[in-house]
Amino acid sequence: MKLVGDFYAYLWPGVNMQEMMKYGNNCNSYVVANTLPGNKHVLVDPGQVVNETKQRCLDRLIAEMKKDNLKIEDVGLIINTHAHPDHYGASETIRKMSGCQVAIGKEENEFLKLAGGEMRQALKSMGFEMPEINPDFYLSEGELRLNQNLVAKIFLIPGHSDGHIGIYWPKEKIFMGGDLVFFGSTGRVDIPGGSAELLKKSIEQIAKLDIEYLCTGHQYGSPGIIKGKEQIKQNFEIIRRSIFPYL
Ligand SMILES: [Zn+2]
What we know:
Blueprint (H helix, E strand, L loop, with lengths): L1 E3 L2 E4 L6 H7 L5 E8 L3 E5 L12 H11 L7 E6 L4 H4 L2 H8 L2 E5 H20 L11 E3 L2 E6 L2 E7 L8 E5 L4 E3 L4 E2 L2 E2 L9 H12 L5 E3 L9 E3 L1 H14 L5
Parallel strand pairs: 4-5, 5-6, 6-7, 11-14
Antiparallel strand pairs: 1-2, 2-3, 3-4, 8-9, 9-10, 10-11, 12-13, 14-15
Helix pairs in contact: 6-7
The structure holds zinc ion.
């Protein structure tokens, strides 16, 4: 579904309990269309190929993109907000379909090298396998120029994972935050690499940005995209009041 301008959102079903039970876990995916040379697309967080409830997540993403006349073969770059399988899982499969490049945060990659085994074990105990990921390059905090007119700002926002990144698009005031915050809640901090203290700091850093569209990584029984400055401000305030004391 079109969000604004060249931005498209593909929200994994889960706005109510019934949907959450039926569809299981997968992340929301976002596309910035026709922005790379050759009119290729940027795909943020592709999600999984198949999830724990045997939903064919990637097939669904491909079908939803098709409705917007976007082809998976035209993806030129995948940016993963973090290295949890429900976000990056389909990266290598999409690379085979499109020849795209795959990127992940520099710090996230370093954490994976150091503690990937521990994370793999922890995720396995939660029912998640970690598919392969071979990034072509690593993103650091700062500007990422995609074409002459389009610059994204990469923020390092650790807490849910050690090297989690968020992507800010200043012109449209869009923030793609992965598992930093959701509607009325935050990403969990109990997976290896997680830190409640860092998550709070990252949230406060992002709360200062001028955001009109807060694109979250999951719906979790509520809207996956929080629209409007005032709503977004209130969402941060609710998180501060009702979640921070328990983190
Ligand atoms: Zn995650």
